[in-house]
Queue: 2 jobs
Job 1
Amino acid sequence: MREYEDLVSEIMACTRCRLHLSRRNPVPGEGPVPSEVMIVGEAPGRREDEAGRPFVGQAGKLLDRLLGLAGLSRSMVYITNVVKCRPPGNRDPRRDEVEACNIYLRRQIRIVSPRIIVTLGRIAGETLYSMAGLRWRGIRAERGRPVNAVIEGLQVILYPTFHPAAALYNREVLPMLEEDFRNLARATSRRGRSLLDFM
Ligand code: URA
């Protein structure tokens, strides 16, 4: 736990990229440590920047409901983002910002030690695939397909899906997102065991 606390303190004091200049609060992430399931989003938005907590805005409300479809609740999963500080105006995080922050995500994965990592949206999917040395063929090709991966020496299942914010803007996305979360409980079934067996 000491290792985790040290990591959070470092994120809180981080000046590794320009985003520290405009943030109100860094958003390290939250949830049980260790945790079977890790959810990785893109970057904090305005509400998260104010609260210092991930997914507390509109997208977060939808995420809570989606977790329910997978038989999960927020208290059962560790939630974080690729980038820990809010990009101004909610722009996409830039490549150098994602790279500067990646040391924190790597350490988080080692400490949280998840069996499954659910990535939300293109940027999280691309980043985790790249960390695992896998080729990303786009969100529509990869979403809802669990893949075995090794990240930081840890054998994990990557499970990409859309970002919940996409469903708030594009109604066509919501049924796919719901389907992916319903299937999440079965994501490890190829090993003959359900994800819920590990809870
Ligand atoms: N969108 C994200 O990607 N992460 C958050 O924490 C909130 C909204």
Job 2
Amino acid sequence: MKLIEVKDYNEMSQKAAEYIIEKVRNYPRINLGLATGGTPVGTYKILIEDHQKNGTSYQEVTTFNLDEYIGLSGNNPNSYRYFMNEKLFNHLDINKNNTFIPSGVAKDIQAECLRYEQLITQHGGVDLQLLGIGQNGHIGFNEPGTSFQSNTHVVDLAPSTIKANARFFDNEEEVPTKAITMGIATIMKSKEILLLVSGESKNDAMHKLWNGEVTESFPASILKNHPYVTIIADQAAVAGLKMHS
Ligand code: F6R
């Protein structure tokens, strides 16, 4: 894992956006894996600005999001489909038919998991996967204890994740308790991974990731076994980190 340390959230967003823009420009048919949550919002803003100012095109780009809440349709402002449209897709020249997110309202949720996994494979896999990290080390919605062998699957969200995500809802009771997520094995199949980490609330997770062992009780630790991971983390996230352990 390569660590790029930056000052703050804005610098993290800038660096991450530059990283992605360069890839898209060099490889216009790239398959991007995308994340929701607070972490990538600044990055998405800069991608939009760059598209408007410099004309970076997403016409041939395909995207696969990590996860979606079960029970929320794409019209629900709290769904991840809605989030992605609002925060990114509506402002780029991307073909929406090439933006994939698991459906949280599929009649047969198990079949939807299989379909999504196959869809990624049929498209040749994810070239660059953008990730955030949960305070408990989750990636996607793979909570502690998830098998490293997992493909796209249904999860019960951990109480801490529901609490953390309540900030996007009117109240905690409205946060769905289940989601569909790419599995750990799905994420590990990406050719390259870009992990963004910002803020003091992620400091503990950053310590466990950098200095801890690879264990299913801290899902992000599996990234140590991936050949091509870049972490862009700000000072608050890396404070006190022993760079060489
Ligand atoms: C989002 C996702 C999650 C978030 C994580 C961090 O699609 O899969 O793993 O990346 O919960 O969330 P934020 O960025 O809100 O701190």
